[in-house]
Amino acid sequence: MQAEKLPYPAKQSDMRQQPDTDLAGYRAAGKLQGKVALITGADSGIGRAVAIAYAMEGADVAVLYNHNTSDAEETKRQVEKQGQRCLLLQLDVREREQCRQAVRRTLAELGGLNVLVNNAAYQMSQEKFEDITEEQIRRTFDTNILGYIWMAQAAIPHLQKGDCIINTGSIVGESGIPILVDYSASKAAIHAFTKSLALYLGEKGIRVNCVVPGPVWTPNIPATMPASEIKNFGHEVALKRPGQPEELAPAYVLLASQDGSFMTGSLVHVTGGRL
Region (Disordered) spans which residues (predicted)? Predict the structure, then answer.
């Protein structure tokens, strides 16, 4: 892996070892034909791969991102390459009104909303727990759990039976990791949020699930992890390597499509054998 550090927020285009997000070997089957998806944090990494997979399956996609316009524009190019519409939304999920704005613009410009993917995330490693600042803790929770809640609250009034919400959790929300204590706690909150919201929305026929990634090579890794961790990143799992974003995308397709019609409240682990 690329052992050099990159500044936060890192651009996917600046990474020496690029994540695989183009799904070159993916075979689509029209599973999301006519659907509209809103994906947060879709400028790069897992979010970009999901946006491309959804477009390949026939969905129009709204891409919500915060910082990296050039990365977001590449996601848009890849979505449109599949013949689908792509709406770029430079907004901040930490702000409740901006989450409402994202939903309003998606409805107005893409004509509906069927799938909400809460994927935006913030992490910053700290060797000493005592050194985590209040600012970092608030940013982590504001992005990783409050942002998911704000987006869900904005989207739910517009979702119908058969529509869904998909959250991105993390294996560290179950196993923990010493250098990401606040991040791990926020991801555990996402898992509980998923299960509770699934119970709340079940009678309406709206499904809520969570993809639980293991170590995945994204721009967040060289931007937020110590160089010593980057070099051997992902080699603790059974497959002895980190995952690529495109290897996560099929799980999001499953959960958004009719194939996952009896799945709700599920934590779908895609971890390479990290237990």
Answer: 1-20
DSSP at 243:
B
Catalytic annotation present for 183: yes
What are the pLDDT digits (tens) for 119-138? 999 999 999 999 999 999 99
DSSP 123: -
48-105 pLDDT, tens digit each:
999 999 999 999 999 999 999 999 999 999 999 999 999 999 999 999 999 999 999 9
**Strands (DSSP E) along the chain, which ranges?**
36-40, 60-65, 86-90, 115-118, 164-168, 207-213, 267-270
User: pTM for this structure?
Assistant: 0.97
User: Cα(28)–Cα(164) distance, rounded to whole angstroms?
Assistant: 20
Q: Is the pLDDT of residue 3 over 90?
A: no
Match domain 33-270 to its CATH number in 3.40.50.2300, 3.40.50.720, 3.40.250.10, 3.40.50.300.
3.40.50.720
Domains in the chain: boundaries: 33-270
Active-site hit among 65, 148, 183, 252: 183
Are 63 and 52 spatial neighbours (Cβ–Cβ below 8 Å)? no
Tokens for 117?
A: 């993917």
Q: Could you tell me which residues come within 8 angstroms of residue 19 by beta carbon, excluding any fewer than 6 positions away?
A: 12, 44, 45, 216, 217, 218, 219, 244, 245
